[in-house]
């Protein structure tokens, strides 16, 4: 029997686990969080159930269906609070996956080593926030952090809140804030009408299968109308102000490349601001497993969601930012093929069609809302770029100028940008762009990136020193395969 | 005779040689297949150590290098100005601790030998050692303090030496692999061939660290420099609780060993950034850089023997590199008798950061035909201890 390890229990991972079980594999599904669902279906813990999760979450019934199917299936072992800190590919056989299991801030997590026949990497993405003056002030949140507080703690980040950045994610963030009692004084999308039109309007027939997605966005828009939230295009937060915490933000109109237009600044009093400019895929485990990346830095997969490494599959946001529906389709395909199925099997026909539909939808979103090249114009010499190590843009510029270095690796080590506790997860790609921009020809000279992190998750020295338990992905004999696919 | 030199390799040894030669009036071109400090020099600890070396030629070179670093740290600061990142020169001293009875006597004997060679190696009692490092596990068997051990931030030190070399006229060509030697019709060396064309000079100096053997091979010559992999762990920032470089006494054995199997020994210190660096492993597995968790676990376990409080420290990063290992444990510094005009400055194993400045002076003096500060013969490519390795592989 094929032993499949699914890393990540968001939409892609849950779908992969169910499809692999449906095809008869024994499955281990693990996630670092306390609960299944990932970022998209982040919710209150089971000990504090809420009656209105269905209202806060799109596709909640899909989630409950997936989660319950897997939770009641003896052939699927679920490891919560399980963090993969390394993948080792030295042997000739399958990769070794090194895991710690237990409360992240508790004492004595257990170390576990798995050697599955196949791996599905469904590690998702985290939201990306570009630096701007004042973004390190308390009261400035990433959209994802604000959303997480709203969804899993029911906490509002402030009373008067601005939501800004780029992308459709601004809409659910604003909706969650409004639902938890914040007054959202405005949503500011940096891209302008022509970009949105270019992204959204051509070939409308391609969108026919994505009506539910359109419905999801329409739901946010009607929610905004109900909460009287203004949605302004072509505007960006260019500064956050305050002494101990944010007291106001400056919004400016921006050119199509996001360069601020002088004279358009407008100051708005707020006690919180949520900023999100899209998503960065969590690539470290795929890189650790040896998977090739695409030119735009997602995991490269074939039609069966298999990566360049045989037996290693990827699904969801790591293969391209596309949202939960695309992740469900990709996860189903990945799980089925990882368990020994083929792309032509009847149960994959619907997921394959849906993948095509939602991939087009994702391409449109990116065309409409993607980050534009002029963003560094808002960054000043005293803007902190790396918040962990408190490295300013001025320090980056000065170090490039004084050393003449063209090496991202050397410049990171010389400035400490990206070397802090988040290991460049927040600032890495912004640091790359800013350092390249300091070069005479706009290019860095070494082939490294900030995506590679051989220690993929923090591990305590004592945990690392302890002998691991070696176990097969499932210790019990799996029950007969379950029925059905999403 | 023309005084132009091509240096192959923009690591710390190449940068130090470029600076010394450019300051002496040589016309220097440094060429690297990657970028400055892109290899071993940015994948190590920045150790300037005497504590790990027994009496002999390498120790003499390290003792001299230590005096050069004290001066260079000041000179580089003055020359490059306050805008240049600090090389973080820190003469913090090293504390070597034997954690077993079996390890205590060899450590004390080793230190006695070092003292006879002029090393400041002070045997401490338990209370003295604990006053230096209050969080050290108190059940150690012997402790020796080496006030002369110091460190720099190796990437910045390399960048600083290269920046200084360029200010003195050296040229730097990055991302351009050297593909072979250029000879005239009589077969004499007149330069190198590169991926971007020919480059001519009267002398070529190979300073490519663990890749020096590959460069020499492209010239048709054997140079027995082998990669020895070393890994380090980096913790997240913490309160300053480790004040010196602290080593397990078995570090001494690992450095001098020819064993190719995995060895780990503790080298623990705080950095200027507030993190703690924990090393290290030594393993001969070619240029295989794939992660090996059991090596990291071994490093972690040994570190906890010295500092139990580190059990709760969060490891956020690992990095590793290849040390240029020589079969007779001495760097190779000087002109190659097999091909006049070809020079070597490589094979410093785990000591290249410290030895770089002394190596550069020796190369400069030899190229100028002047007497060297230390006897250069023991480091020569023509030395007897290297001969069997050259013949064997040739």
From TrEMBL, chain A:
Keywords: Oxidoreductase. Residues 3-331 form the FAD/NAD(P)-binding domain. One of its GO terms (molecular function) is oxidoreductase activity. It comes from the Bacteria. Residues 384-436 form the BFD-like [2Fe-2S]-binding domain. Residues 466-486 are annotated as: Disordered. It holds the Pfam family Fer2_BFD. This is FAD-dependent oxidoreductase. InterPro entries: BFD-like_2Fe2S-bd_dom (IPR007419), BFD-like_2Fe2S-bd_dom_sf (IPR041854), FAD/NAD-bd_sf (IPR036188), FAD/NAD-binding_dom (IPR023753), Metab_Enz_Cyan_OpOx_G3PDH (IPR051691), Opine_Oxase_asu/HCN_bsu (IPR017224). The keyword Oxidoreductase applies.
From TrEMBL, chain B:
Residues 374-394 are annotated as: Disordered. Keywords: Oxidoreductase. InterPro entries: FAD-dep_OxRdtase, FAD/NAD-bd_sf. It comes from Cryobacterium tepidiphilum. Coiled coil: none annotated. SUPFAM superfamilies: FAD-linked reductases, C-terminal domain, FAD/NAD(P)-binding domain. The keyword Cytoplasm does not apply. Residues 4-366 form the FAD dependent oxidoreductase domain. GO terms for cellular component: cytoplasm. Gene3D superfamilies: D-Amino Acid Oxidase, subunit A, domain 2, FAD/NAD(P)-binding domain. GO terms for molecular function: oxidoreductase activity. This is FAD-binding oxidoreductase.
